[in-house]
Each structure stands twice: as structure tokens, then as C-alpha cells.
Amino acid sequence: MHVPDGFINAPVSAATGVVAAAAVAVSLRGARRELAGTGPGGSAAAERTAPLAGLVAAFIFAVQMLNFPVAAGTSGHLLGGALAAILVGPYTGVLCVSVVLLMQGVLFADGGLTALGVNITDMAIVTTVVAYALFRGLVKVLPRRRRSVTVASFVAALLSVPAAAVAFTAIYALGGTADVPIGKVFTAMVGVHLLIGIGEAAITALTVGAVIAVRPDLVYGARGLTQPLELRTSPLAGPADGTEAAEPAPAPAAAAEAAAPAPARRSVRRVWLAGLAAALVCAGGISYYASADPDGLEKVAHDHGIDAKAEDHAAKDSPLADYSVKDITDPRLSGGLAGVIGVGATLAVGTGVFVVVRRRRSAATTERPDAGAGRPSENV
Question: Alpha-carbon distance 372 to 380, whole Å?
Fold first, then answer.
């Protein structure tokens, strides 16, 4: 659903750019809390979120290269807002998808540069906000089990895609450059993206389910599912020989604290390496077999004349334009190498952004050690 240059007029493109910039600024502040430990699960969980955020962006980039058929002559691909929000948090999720869109527009001529604000608003903000709101609502009413997180992920991802289609239709109604009946645009966009949403939901649920099966502590949306064990003692209990106890039984909290060993810090290296390997395999190998049919927006645009005033991409002469490396004639090698470069570049930029965000929050917390005191933690 990458909107090219020329679909939306300049005033509305500029307005969505302002909206996108404001949302990114808000997300930077929110991501500082998510990455520094004032969100659900505390600082221990957040320490594990920071190194994974860049990987989530790289993984979304890779899976977006895997277009899957949804109807005759039409394909779809992951948008990623639901997946990012559930894995690393809604604010960090907006930043993840925004990084992906920036790298795609600048390096691969995918999604117009003047339409970057439109794409961030539609694909990063709308999908993340809608998906996470639905997800949080579902996990509150479903049983407190890991399977419930996977089910909620499926439903949230499924509905986030047609929500993005509705948002695009609204933007086009305000600033579309071609004279096309909005009713037809709405019907066509929502119809095809309901089908694409099924693929989005399957990918999101499978990915969240896989991570939650091995490391539920790494899933932002699953924090709070596992309750700490409590050592309960009875105040009526006494020595086995029937003599009067010399001292009262210790309080349950104190006994639990004394009896429970300090939790071992678990490394995320294996999960990180497995995720990186999966991203490289998807972008460098499986992407060769992706559907070559136009995606939902391209198909609707062609069928209904939305693309009548489409413009050439400013980066059309990029060495990586159209996800292929210039001057390499073998399509498998060219596309695979471009995918690997994209994963590496997205990982580097995304990780750099999140490291800076977390360090700034850590520095602010060091200067004001009571900044996060008294804030209730959010549980699933």
C-alpha cells in the first residue's frame, strides 16, 4: 500500500507530513518510556526490548518483500503495524514502520518521497494505533493465557489492514489528483484489503506465537501474563513437636523474598540471531518467489484511474531501485542481494535510532531518579 508521488496533491501531502512528523515526535517520547522500563513489565523487560526493536524493523522490511496472491491478478504484503506494536510496544512500533518506509523510499524507490507523510500516516500510525487498541481490548476480556495473545494478535492485525484502506480513501477524498468517485475507491480498497488482512493476520499471529513460545518475556503485549510465585505460610502453623513457637512466622512477602533466588538474566542473543537469520532468508531467498502481481493499491489505482497523474519517483535511478542491484543481470542474485542490503541498512538505522532514544531516556532518569516513581505498571 505504498502511495507513489502524484496520487495526492501537494497541500494534503504537506498536511499529512505535519501529522506524521508530530506522531513521530510523540512516538519518540513514548518509545523512551517503553525502552527504559516505565511501561508494563518494568526495566528488566525493557532492557530486552531495546536490542530487538531494530531487528523488528529489519524483519518487517524483509517480510514486506514477500508479496502473496490474494485474488486474480492482485497480491498483498505485510504492513507490519500490528506486529511491531505487539512485539515492542505501540510507540516503538510506529517508529519501526516509519524507519522501514523511509529506507524503502530513499533506497528502493518504493513509496513516493513527497508522499512519505501519507505513507507514514496510513501504514505506520493508523495500523499501529488501530491494531494495538483492538489488541489491548481483546486481551482484557480473553483468558489470561499465552494463546489469547496470539488470538488477539490475529484479530488486531486482520482489522488493521482495512482500517488503513479506509484511511487512504479519506486522504484521497481530501486530496486525490484524479477525478474518481470516492464510493468506488472505498469499495475497491476495503474489499481487496480485507483479503490482504487475512495474510497480515496469519503472518502476525505466527510470528508472535513463535516468539511467545520460546521467550514470552520478549513480547511487549504479553507482559504481565506470568505472575511471580508467592510463598504462603500460615500464622497458625507451629513446630512439629507441639511446643509453642519462639517467634511468629515471617510475613509472606518477606519469606518469599528470602526464599526466592535472584532471577537469572536471560540473553536475547539466540532470539536476535534467529530473527536476523529469518529476515535474511526472507529478503535474500524467498523474496525471489514472491508474487509479481500488483499489490492492492496498485491494482485499484490501475483499474479505477487513480494513477492518472502518478509521477516518476525521485530515486528511480537509485542503484537499488525496484529491489534489484543495478548492473547485476541475474534476477535471483540481484533481488536477493538488494534484500540483504535492505535488511542490513534497516537494522543499522533502526538500531541506531532506538539506542539513541534509550540512552536519552536513561540519562534523563539518572538526572531525575524519582522521575518514574509512583507510576502504576500496566498489565495484560
Answer: 20
